[in-house]
Each structure stands twice: as structure tokens, then as C-alpha cells.
Specification:
The protein is mainly alpha-helical and about 675 residues long. The protein is built from 37 helices and five strands. The chain has a five-stranded mixed beta sheet. It is elongated and about 105 Å long.
Length: about 675
């Protein structure tokens, strides 16, 4: 090319605009090089186009170099780089450049304010946002829709939804973008009912919703109470002819899933003519969250078979399913797949891996994943704290909590649930009380019923039953049935019949059909040998049509789950199982085990009590595991109820005699029996 042909700014400008349109970076770089070789001195507007080309083609650094060399800059020059910084996540740099622009004497316009307000929203920088707002009033009135929507969004992301509404109400002309912004502000801050009201108000004005409107309003219908409104929005989407829009299909799948209506979610997915990774992920997450873990895994396999690539949210969702299934083998397989796809360093995926390994019984793998995380958030720390608490590493959970505080990450209410649970599991009563006060006084977190239940559990486990009762009466909020059930369970553990009767009466006043109250009270009577009183309670329960949940244990061997109930003789290998169990019973008795028949809640003779104890479901599952797995393999058993004290003691002896680690996950926690001792230290 001859230099003389292109030595014209208008030609250069037109070509640069074409480069932007086609994302043609190399061509744009060629134009830039040609300008330099031709000795062409670009004027301000051409420099702006050159910088814009680099920004739109993803080369912010080159755009900044063009900006830095400009002999003169105007508002457009600053706007371009500020917007480039915001779009690429350089929020501090964007705000600093805005300050530089202000000092230069240049007057910002609505595009400037929009970008700067986006920066403030990203940083949750309310103070700076308010300062920018004051400038918009002086320079560009905030009734300007473009700036108004940005202000509205900034206040919403800074959790000031009242200020968002004030901005909205001042707008001269409310267009669909403004309505959408106000609805999004409400949903972002959990004001779903207000968002739905705004949507109704918008409809009354005759304003036509777009697909963004419907996506936002569906986000306000993510709980079962709003299911009917969600269905109505679904109808409006169909009427508007927008059902073929993939984002709306995805939003509908999410809405029905979060409302627990998986059948409708599946119908939406199956009718979608086009799907993307988000579609599959929404359905997988819905299945995992609603207890359909196996369906979630099947959908993940189908998604891969149809050649859709999983993203970090897909992996986090399917890991949730594997955690529910407690399938360690398949969990490790998906971990390998995650490593190959490069998503292991994603915070959400790493968090899900920590949780999955913990729920599958491998706290060691949880800790390894956590220790390798390049970046952690509050969920990361919370998950590992809860994991340690669940596996009996209470002191380690407390140490991790302290490390979290030192990193500057603010614990949330779930974190405190985990650390209070850790205190409860290891009997650190005063430490738990200190943390409970810390949560309220230092972090301003209002306790939920679960926090109060943790404190009652903490006191109850340690035997401070009357102190726990006093704590309940002084909570300051009305206690629910779960609080009293926690105390009743502690009365059962410590054999306090007097308090147990009083607590049971209170519990039954709140929920007459709560079966746990009858079960625990009858167990208290049985442990005290009061068989007539126990029979009376069981009769009351039967008259109300209540049934005690039977104890059940299961173990996975070679990808197949084997379930057992007490005295179960339905298994094909029952003869070998009972033969092994009889052998083990003799061996542990020789080693010093004495059956604790107080855990037999039936009025039978001593011999029958010992037989009943030896046939508990967890012992059957362990016996099956011993005859079905290699000697070097850890045996892992799951139980739907709390492990009984006699089984706990017997498994310590079994673990020592067979020289194998045995893990039992009951409804409360994990018990790791390693060649004798249990990780709980006999405190559970």
C-alpha cells in the first residue's frame, strides 16, 4: 500500500470502525502501523476510534497506550478507557481515571456517569456512588433515563433499594429498561413481592415487557409461595411468543426447580427446541437440590453424550448430587474430569469438591482440596469448618475459623452454625457461648432458630440440661418444636426422666403429630425400665397414626448399595453375614466388650437383649463389608438414625480386631473408627 493513499483521517476512521464491527484486531493493528509509518499525526477523535478498536478487540493495554500518548483528550477519550476498565474488571483504575478527568476540567456526560456508577456498583462502593450521584444532579439531572438506570442499579447492588426506588420515581419517562432495572433491584435484595408488584404496575401502564423483563420477574418467583405467579408469567411468555428464547426457557426451568416442581421443570426442558449448557445445568441443579440425585447424574451423562460442555456451575451441581449419594468412587471420577477440563481452580467447583468429599466420608480429601485452593471465599471457609465439625475435628474447625477471621473474610450465619456445631461435638461449652455472643455483638448477625438449637445442643450434650431449658425460656423469640426436640434428645441421652416428661409435653403442645416426641419419650421410659409408661406412649402414638422410622444402614460395594434393617435376613448372603457377625461377637467379647443392654428398648430377658443388640443394622452392614471387600479397604456404612451407644462401643472393638478403619455416618455426624478409638472421642 502507498502511504499517500491513506493519509486521510476519515479513511482511517472508517476502516477502524469496520475493524471494530468485525473484531478484526490484526487489520486494526495494520491501520495503526500504517499511520505511524506514514507519519500521520492522528487528531483526538481518530485516537478515540483507535483506542476503541483495541478495547472492543480485547486489547485494553494497547488502548491505554494510545490514550497515554494523546496530546489532547476530550470527554469521549476518557469515556472509552473508563468503560474499558469497568468491562475488564479494573474497577479501581476506572474510578481513578474518573478523578483524573474531573481534575482536568473536562465535563462528564451521561456515558461517563453510567460507566462510573457501574464501577461503584461492582465495588459495593456506596460512598463514591453517592458522590457521583451528587455530580449527576449538578451536571446531568438524574431524571435522565440512561443515568437514572445506572444510579438505580448502583444503589441496588449496594443494598440500598429504598434509594433505588427514589431514583426510579424521579424519572421523567419510564421505559422498559427502567422498569427492568427497578424489578432487578428488588429481586437482588430479596424483595420478591415488591418486584412482582412493579411488574403488575408496568403491565397496567401498557408497557410491553421484553425477554429481560420476563427473566427478571421469574427470578422473583423462586420459592413455592410464588409458584402460581410463576405459572402466570409462563403463560404471558407463551402469549408473547417468546418460549423459543433460550434464556427464558432456562429461567423457567430454574423457577420450577426452585419451587420444587421438577415434573414441570422437565416438561419445559424437553420442549426446548434449542438448549445450551445453562439449560442442562439448571435442570441438574434442580434435581440435586430437590433430592433427585440419581436423576441429576443421569442428566449430566446425557448432557455429555449430546456434546454439551459442562461449565463450573454444571460441575458444582453434579458434585452436589454425588455428595447426596455419598458415592466416593464416582465423586473421584468426576474430580479427575474436572482437573482435565481446567475447572478445579474455580472457587465454586472447589467448594463443591470439599463438600462432596466430606459427605462421602473422606475428610482427608476435603482438606487437600481446600489447601490447594488459590482463592477462597466465605463459602470455602464455611464448608471446611462444617466438614471438620461433622468428622469430629472440632478443635481444627475452631482453628480454621480463627484463620478465616485473620484473612479478613467476614463469616456469615452459616459459618457460625458450623463452628457452633463443632463446639457442640467436642464439648467446648464456654467457647461456644463466646462465639454465639461474638456473632451477635461483633458481626451483627441475628440468630436464627438453628443457632439457638445449636446452643441448646451444646448445653444438652454436656449434661447441662436445666441450663439449656433456661436458655430456651430466655431466647427472646418464641421457640419452635425443633428446639424442644433437641433438649428432649439430650434428656434421653442423660436419662433425665423428670425434665424429659416436661419437655415432651411442651413439644407435643407445639406439634401433637411430631413422632420424634413419642419415640424419645418412650425411649426414656424404656431405659428406666418403666415398660407400662412406655406402652402408654406408644399407644398414644399409634392412635394418632404415627409410625416410628425404622433404623436402616447401607453400604456400597462395587457400585451396588446394600441395605439392612435390624435382624435383616433378606440379603442373598445372609448365611455368611450372620456367620461373620457371630464370629465377630465372640472375638470382641474375648477382647473385653460387654453388651450394653440398656439400649434394648424392649421388655425381654438378658439373652434376648444381647441377641437383639448383635443384630442391629449397622453391625450387619459392617459384617457384610468385611466379607465383601479387600482387607486394605476402608469400610464405610451409612445410617438413617443416630448410632446407638452399644453399636458405637462394639465397632471400636471390631475395628481394632480386624485392623481396618471403619467409618459410620449417622444422621448427626461421621464416626471414624481407626483400629479402636473413634474420632468423636466417645462424645456425641
Amino acid at each position: 500500500m502507498q502511504y499517500g493513499i491513506w493519509a486521510d483521517g476519515n479513511v482511517y476512521g472508517s476502516i477502524l470502525q469496520e475493524c471494530v464491527h468485525n473484531k478484526a484486531l490484526e487489520a486494526g493493528q495494520g491501520v495503526h502501523a500504517h499511520m505511524i509509518k506514514a507519519g500521520f499525526e492522528p487528531y483526538t477523535s481518530l485516537c478515540n476510534k483507535l483506542a476503541n478498536m483495541y478495547i472492543k478487540c480485547g486489547h485494553l493495554k494497547d488502548a491505554c497506550q494510545v490514550f497515554d500518548k494523546m496530546p489532547e483528550r476530550d470527554t469521549v477519550s476518557f469515556n472509552g478507557i473508563i468503560a474499558g476498565y469497568v468491562q475488564n474488571g479494573y474497577i479501581d483504575e476506572a474510578l481513578e481515571l474518573f478523578r483524573e478527568m474531573h481534575l482536568s476540567g473536562l465535563k462528564p456526560n451521561d456515558y461517563t456517569f453510567s460507566s462510573v456508577l457501574s464501577a461503584c456498583a461492582s465495588l459495593d462502593a456506596l460512598k463514591q456512588g453517592e458522590q457521583v450521584h451528587s455530580q449527576t444532579i449538578k451536571i446531568v439531572v438524574d431524571s435522565n433515563n440512561f443515568v437514572g438506570s445506572a444510579l438505580l442499579d448502583m444503589y441496588a447492588k449496594c443494598a440500598r433499594v429504598v434509594e433505588s426506588r427514589k431514583v426510579f420515581d424521579k424519572l421523567d419517562k419510564v421505559d422498559v429498561v427502567s422498569w427492568n432495572a427497578m424489578m432487578a433491584a428488588y429481586t437482588l435484595n430479596g424483595h420478591d413481592e415488591d418486584a412482582l408488584n412493579i411488574f403488575c404496575q408496568m403491565q397496567r401502564t401498557g408497557m410491553k415487557p421484553d425477554h429481560f423483563t420476563f427473566t427478571i420477574v421469574l427470578g422473583a418467583c423462586l420459592n413455592p409461595k410464588a409458584l402460581e405467579q410463576g405459572r402466570q408469567v409462563h403463560g404471558l411468555i407463551a402469549t408473547a411468543g417468546l418460549l423459543s428464547e433460550i434464556p427464558l426457557g432456562n429461567a423457567l426451568v430454574t423457577m420450577y426447580s426452585r419451587c420444587g416442581v421438577m415434573e414441570d421443570a422437565h416438561k419445559v426442558l424437553s420442549k426446548m427446541l434449542r438448549r445450551n449448557t445453562v439449560s442442562w445445568t439448571a435442570m441438574i441443579a434442580g434435581c440435586a437440590q430437590n433430592g433427585y440425585a440419581e436423576d441429576a447424574v443421569k442428566l449430566f451423562c446425557q448432557m455429555q453424550w449430546e456434546s454439551f460442555k459442562a461449565n463450573e456451575f454444571t460441575f458444582a451441581s453434579v458434585l452436589m448430587a454425588y455428595a447426596s449419594l455419598a458415592n466416593l468412587h464416582q465423586g473421584r471420577q468426576i474430580h479427575t474430569h474436572i482437573i482435565k477440563t481446567g475447572y478445579e481452580s474455580e472457587v465454586s467447583v472447589a467448594n463443591a469438591l470439599v463438600d462432596m468429599y466430606s459427605k462421602c466420608g473422606s475428610i482427608r480429601d476435603s482438606q487437600q482440596v481446600f489447601n490447594k485452593m488459590p482463592k477462597r471465599d466465605v463459602v470455602s471457609w464455611t464448608v471446611i469448618v462444617v466438614a471438620c465439625a461433622q468428622h469430629g475435628h472440632g478443635k481444627e474447625a475452631l482453628e480454621l475459623f480463627r484463620k478465616m477471621q485473620h484473612t479478613g473474610i467476614r463469616p456469615d450465619d452459616v459459618t457460625f452454625l458450623g463452628v457452633l456445631s463443632a463446639c457442640s461435638h467436642v464439648g467446648l461449652v464456654e467457647e461456644g457461648r463466646h462465639l454465639f455472643d461474638l456473632m451477635i455483638q461483633n458481626y451483627g448477625i441475628k440468630p436464627r432458630m438453628e443457632h439457638y438449637a445449636c446452643m441448646v445442643d451444646l448445653l444438652g450434650r454436656s449434661g447441662q440440661l436445666y441450663r439449656a431449658e433456661d436458655f430456651i425460656t430466655k431466647m427472646g423469640i418464641e421457640s419452635d418444636a425443633s428446639i424442644w426436640e433437641t433438649l428432649l434428645a439430650a434428656c434421653r441421652t442423660h436419662g433425665n426422666m423428670e425434665l424429659g416428661k416436661r419437655v415432651a409435653e411442651r413439644l407435643l403442645q407445639l406439634e401433637p403429630h411430631r413422632d420424634a416426641a413419642y419415640v424419645l419419650l418412650s425411649n426414656i421410659y424404656a431405659a428406666a425400665g418403666m415398660w407400662d409408661a412406655k406402652a402408654k406412649v406408644r399407644k398414644m402414638s399409634a392412635n394418632r397414626g404415627l409410625k416410628k422410622e425404622p433404623g436402616c444402614s447401607w453400604i456400597q460395594v462395587k457400585s451396588k448399595v446394600h441395605e439392612f434393617i435390624v435382624a435383616d435376613r433378606s440379603h442373598p448372603q445372609r448365611e455368611e453375614i450372620y456367620e461373620k457377625l457371630e464370629e465377630l461377637t465372640g472375638q470382641i467379647k474375648d477382647a473385653g466388650y460387654v453388651p450394653n443392654t440398656s439400649f434394648v428398648l424392649h421388655d425381654v430377658d438378658q439373652e434376648q437383649k444381647e441377641i437383639k443388640l448383635s443384630h442391629h443394622s449397622e453391625k450387619l452392614a459392617i459384617a457384610f463389608g468385611l466379607i465383601s471387600t479387600p482387607i486394605e479397604e476402608t469400610i464405610q456404612v451409612f445410617k438413617n438414625l443416630r448410632i446407638c451407644g452399644d453399636c458405637h462401643n462394639a465397632i471400636k472393638y471390631i475395628s481394632k480386631i480386624v485392623g481396618r478403619e471403619i467409618i459410620v455416618r449417622d444422621v448427626k455426624r461421621f464416626h471414624h473408627f481407626k483400629y479402636g478409638p473413634c474420632s468423636c472421642g466417645d462424645y456425641w
